[in-house]
Amino acid sequence: MTFLTAVVLILAGAVAGIINTLAGNGSAVTLTVLVSMGLPANVANGTNRIGVLSQSFTGWYTFYKNGLWDAKAAKWLIPVTIIGALTGTLLAVEISEALLHPILGTLMALLLLQTLLNPKQWLQAQKEKIDQGPTWLKLLMFFCVGFYGGFIQAGVGVLLLSALVMGIGYDLKMANGLKIGIVALYTIPVLALFVYHQQVDWMLGILLAIGQSFGAWLAARFALKQKNAVVWIRRLLITVLIFGMMKFFHLWEFFVGGG
Question: What number of other Cβ atoms are within 10 A of residue 197's Cβ?
Answer without folding.
Answer: 11
